[in-house]
Amino acid sequence: MKLILLGPPGSGKGTQAQKIEQKYNLKQLATGDLLRDEIKSESKIGREVKKIIDRGELVSDKIIISLIENSIDKKKFSTGFILDGFPRSVCQAKALDKILQKKNLALDIAIELLVEDKKLINRIVGRFSCANCSAVYHDFDNKTKKEGICDKCGSRDFLRRSDDTKEVFAERLKEYYRLTAPIIPYYKDKGMLKSINAMESISYIENNIYGILDSVKKQN
Ligand code: AMP
After folding, report:
1. DSSP string covering 94-151
2. What is the CATH number of the domain that holds 210?
């Protein structure tokens, strides 16, 4: 199964991608994570993109498309993948179609997570993740079971993203509406879009997604 998770920053794409990944044995491919790896490795691209990410702007289509092209490896992704944070522009969506066509792969579905703007900021500002296994948590909505210990791997090291601030979030949301939201009709026109209410609890959203994915699986 090959799917895209769409939605504004803070809509829960990363949290849900981690759950889907486990349940359906798919690989999560998050361009934000790929870029943060580049920053960590202090590569030329990493140095270039750090400033862009910290301003809340989008990295150029050219850089992102080549990152994705190199990451969608047919063997590694043979059981399927979840694209999280990609595509983020119509240009990227069209490039993805071409990349998949070349690799003889096809998307099954695009799931849009709908959340009101005013709810997004709290989700972003309270967010943190495990420094070891990248499990995502939140100060209020999704705490670790034992304080200061990752539920999944037991690590005591956590990270907060430098772009998860009120100021940078405002810019990220603007960029979402300017460049990313136009891809919603792109997938709707292809008959591939399912939109779900993502204002509810994590488990409610998770079950809704599972319902959609189970019916895709039956059709395949
Ligand atoms: P994310 O982890 O998906 O919230 O992405 C963090 C930041 O990385 C975004 O605010 C962008 O600056 C950059 N980024 C991630 N994915 C993309 C993409 N597909 N296109 C352009 N920029 C991206």
Report:
1. HHHHHHHHHTT----EEEEEE--HHHHHHHHHTEEEETTT--EEETTTB--SBTTB-T
2. 3.40.50.300
Active site residue 143: no
**How far apart are alpha carbons 59 and 35 in whole angstroms?**
9
Please, which residues bridge with residue 112 across strands?
6, 195
Question: Exactly one of 2, 36, 172, 194 is catalytic; which is it?
Answer: 172
53 CA: nearest ligand 1 atom: 12
Whether 213 maps to a domain, the answer reads: yes
| pLDDT tens-digit readout, 132-186 | 999 999 999 899 999 999 999 999 999 999 999 999 999 999 999 999 999 999 9
